[in-house]
Design goal:
Strand content: 15-25%
Helix content: 25-40%
Order of helices and strands: EHEHEEEHHHHHHHEEHEEEEEHHH
Bound molecules: flavin-adenine dinucleotide, iron/sulfur cluster
Number of helices: 13
Distance between the termini: 30 Å
């Protein structure tokens, strides 16, 4: 284990002041990702700023009719919160498809957004990795890339973003509230995570001296016609090969609004509004859903071990949209088990 200093932030302003004073410091919330990275010496922060006791654990209704989730609400509490179960079941389904109950009890909402890729080379400090060490190369492009990206990748990095919850947040058009030395700002979810380009070491557009204070959900929650489907190697405790969040609002038999986001396929939750637009004004059918899936995957590219994901994603999109249209979601909130 590396040496590091430890400090506990007394309030949110103190947390920002402390991180701004030390660019090599890191916030620690639940620690479920950061501590593993530190043990493997992938991350070597000079100082941990403990934010786990800050008063960011509320879930409140907003005047705009939506919900504001504090950044430190544990994933379990969020998934089982009555407002989320009733108004945003897509989020509850996505959270409960991830990790394990124990991890979800520790993991925070803010930390989930900033968790790092599960590319094995990123965690293996004996191999080149542009994300871990800029300019060193990408071991995955010609290596074992079964779990890697099929959309939006670059020559520098083909890693995927591992979160389930973020796929649902992307579909629902959440907004991320952050605070830094220059004040507060709000980032649209689509702009929060980045594609790798030639800077894969930067996962998000969060500045190094900013803290996530909350996630805002808009009023529209798609609580009737939704589904989150996660395809993985094991039934639980595994990251997605492909996941799909789908949500539909009908006007009679006609699709009035549709949302579609994919996980496990790109460096960020992948949402394509032009594929969603193709669904609008149409009746739900396998043919229409396949058309949208083909459109969404038009630029998909497979590597030596992951080309199967393109067809997998196509079929997963059609199935998830079908489940959403029939109001038979893949998973529903299950009974609370702690
Ligand atoms: C074995 C295992 C299996 C898992 N399986 C899944 C899965 O299937 N699906 C899934 O989605 N996730 C999965 N996870 C990941 C888990 O969801 C994340 O580790 C967790 O959400 C991170 O939250 P945390 O509070 O523990 O973050 P931490 O580990 O404390 O922090 C992670 C990062 O976020 C930063 N950070 C934390 N809070 C803030 C904030 N408020 N503002 C700014 N930066 C912040 C930290 O500085 C750090 O860089 C798994 C994890 C493990 C260990
Ligand atoms: S895919 Fe990205 S994270 Fe994985 S080895 Fe290549 S540069 Fe590193």
């Amino acid at each position: 284990m590396i040496n590091f200093d430890y400090a506990r932030a007394s309030d949110v302003t103190d947390a920002v002041r402390r991180i701004a004073a030390d660019p090599a410091a890191k916030f620690i919330a639940g620690g479920t990702n950061l501590l593993d990275l530190m043990k493997g010496q992938v991350e070597r922060p000079s100082r941990l700023i403990d934010i786990s006791r800050l008063p960011l654990k509320q879930i409140d209704e907003t005047t705009a009719g939506g919900i504001l989730i504090g950044a430190l609400v544990p994933n379990s509490d969020l998934a089982y919160h009555p407002l989320i179960e009733r108004r945003y079941p897509l989020i509850a389904s996505a959270i409960l498809a991830g990790a394990s109950q124990q991890l979800r009890n520790m993991a925070s909402t803010g930390g989930n957004l900033v968790q790092r890729t599960r590319c094995a080379y990123f965690y293996d400090t004996t191999t080149p990795c542009n994300k871990r060490e800029p300019g060193s190369g990408c071991s995955a492009i010609d290596g074992i890339n079964r779990g890697h990206a099929i959309l939006g990748a670059s020559e520098a990095c083909i890693a995927t973003h591992p979160s389930d919850m973020c796929v649902a947040l992307a579909a629902l058009e959440a907004r991320v509230h952050v605070l830094g030395p220059k004040g507060a700002r709000v980032i649209a979810f689509a702009d929060f995570h980045r594609l790798p380009g030639d800077m894969p070491h930067r996962d998000t557009n969060l500045h190094a001296d900013e803290i996530i204070t909350g996630i805002e959900l808009p009023a529209r929650g798609f609580a009737t016609n939704y589904s989150y489907l996660k395809i993985r190697d094991r039934l639980s405790y595994a990251f997605a090969l492909v996941s799909v969040a789908a949500a539909i609002e009908f006007d009679g038999d006609i699709i009035k609004h549709a949302r579609l986001a994919l996980g496990g396929v790109a460096h960020k939750p992948w949402r394509d509004t032009s594929a969603e637009a193709m669904l609008q004004g149409r009746s739900a059918s396998q043919a229409v859903f396949t058309e949208a899936a083909d459109h969404l995957l038009r630029d998909a590219r497979g590597y030596s071990h992951n080309a199967f994901k393109i067809d997998l994603a196509r079929r997963a999109i059609v199935r998830t949209l079908t489940q959403a249209a029939q109001a038979t979601p893949q998973t529903q909130s299950s009974k609370k088990v702690r």
